[in-house]
């Protein structure tokens, strides 16, 4: 019966719109923009500044303590950035790629270091996204075996390597400031566009549609690129630990956790009006329970599994891939619930392309 209802809602596209007439969608978008998007980008900017400072300190005094500080700063910045990635429309995709396009192209990076161009932020601005941003910084300050002495030796043996690292950190701040300006009410004012859906008839449903699609893509990226591909989805089951995001730093699971927290934060509208309230208003259910509650339950289940992991994902893929498969199955269940049930109840047109037919 549930699938019949969903089919009717998808075909007609009318039921959610009619029922939503008494729900203040504009207030929901205003809350998400003001209390989630804006402070989250500011939080990332603060951590990016701390990372830049730590890398400049490392350049001035190349020692183990300063390297450890820079690594910790990178992890904090990457953690905050993972939440920003949810808000990645086509208008700002280029900026997002310049901040975090992975997997980084280490061949390009090594060629730039071996070259004779002046390595500064202006140079970084001219190169491709796969040789800059957070992944490139990770490559230069982490070693897969967590051998910090080896990292220090590499940085000390080639001053251009350290110059490239500093240039990356400086350019990261430049791109982050650009992104802040896009969202700022005093700059490009995309935050106001997000709230009012300017350019699309001032129809707040259009922003809701875009953000819902972004949520689906956001969760699929966790499932597909961060879990299924490393588990061998494209290689006939051959495990590929080096396909993990942030495998060099051993921070893969933490970034998945951050993404899920970011999704849940936006879904619930933080402490204000969110998609959970919208679904409750529509009377959305799943097997007799409020759909919003089931979505939150599935997020919490995945977060609990992540907390119980006994080693970094990179190690688990080699030593105990069943833990990763369990995690993947839970993420898939969450993804399908959002992609099918949430999308249908909201009456959203899904532009996301299905990969696996689930």
Written overview of the protein:
The protein has helices at residues 2-12, 15-19, 25-60, 64-84, 93-99, 106-114, 121-126, 133-141, 148-157, 159-183, 190-196, 204-228, 252-267, 275-282, 291-308, 313-319, 321-346; strands at residues 285-286, 289-290. The chain has a single domain (2-346), classed as Up-down Bundle (A middle domain of Talin 1). The protein is built from 17 helices and two strands. Strand 1 (285-286) and strand 2 (289-290) form a beta hairpin. Helix content is 69%, strand content 1%. The longest helix is centred in the first third of the chain and has 36 residues, at 25-60. The two termini are 19 Å apart. The chain has a two-stranded antiparallel sheet. By secondary structure, it is mainly α.
Q: At the first level of CATH, what is the class? A: Mainly Alpha
Uncertain residue ranges = 1-19, 354-358
Question: In angstroms, what separates the terminal alpha carbons?
Answer: 19 Å
Helix content: 55-70%
SSE series: HHHHHHHHHHHHHHEEHHH
Q: Give the integer mean of the pLDDT values.
A: 90
Return Rg in Å: 22 Å
CATH level-4 homologous superfamily: M75 peptidase, HXXE motif
The helix-and-strand class reads mainly alpha
- Strands of the widest sheet, in order across it, are 1-2
The total number of structural domains is 1
Which percent band covers the strand fraction?
under 5%
The count of DSSP E runs of length 2 or more, i.e. the number of strands, is 2
């Amino acid at each position: 019966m549930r699938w019949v209802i969903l089919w009717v809602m998808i075909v007609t596209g009318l039921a959610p719109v009619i029922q939503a007439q008494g729900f203040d969608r504009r207030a929901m978008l205003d809350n998400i923009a003001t209390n989630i998007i804006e402070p989250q980008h500011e939080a990332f900017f603060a951590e990016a500044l701390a990372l830049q400072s730590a890398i400049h300190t490392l350049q001035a005094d190349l020692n183990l303590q300063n390297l450890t500080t820079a690594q910790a700063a990178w992890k904090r910045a990457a953690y905050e950035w993972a939440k920003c990635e949810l808000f990645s429309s086509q208008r700002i995709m280029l900026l997002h790629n310049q901040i975090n396009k992975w997997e980084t192209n280490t061949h390009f990076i090594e060629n730039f270091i071996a070259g004779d161009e002046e390595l500064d932020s202006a140079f970084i601005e001219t190169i491709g996204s796969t040789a800059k941003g957070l992944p490139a910084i990770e490559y230069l300050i982490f070693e897969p075996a967590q051998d910090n002495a080896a990292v220090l030796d590499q940085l000390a043996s080639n001053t251009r390597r350290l110059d490239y690292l500093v240039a990356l950190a400086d350019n990261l701040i430049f791109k982050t400031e650009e992104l802040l300006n896009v969202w700022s009410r005093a700059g490009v004012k995309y935050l106001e566009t997000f709230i009012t859906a300017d350019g699309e008839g001032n129809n707040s449903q259009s922003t809701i549609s875009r953000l819902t699609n972004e949520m689906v893509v956001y969760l699929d990226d966790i499932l597909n690129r961060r879990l299924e591909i490393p588990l061998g989805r494209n290689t006939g089951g051959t495990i590929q630990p080096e396909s993990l995001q942030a495998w060099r730093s051993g921070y893969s699971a933490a970034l998945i956790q951050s993404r899920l927290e970011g999704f849940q934060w936006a879904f619930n509208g933080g402490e204000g009006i969110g998609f959970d309230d919208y679904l409750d208003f529509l009377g959305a259910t799943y097997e007799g329970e409020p759909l919003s509650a089931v979505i939150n339950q599935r997020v919490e289940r995945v977060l609990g599994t992540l907390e119980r992991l006994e080693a970094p994902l990179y190690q688990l893929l080699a030593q105990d891939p069943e833990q990763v498969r369990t995690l993947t199955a839970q993420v898939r269940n969450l993804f399908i619930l959002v992609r099918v049930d949430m999308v249908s109840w909201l009456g959203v047109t899904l532009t996301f392309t299905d990969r696996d037919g689930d």
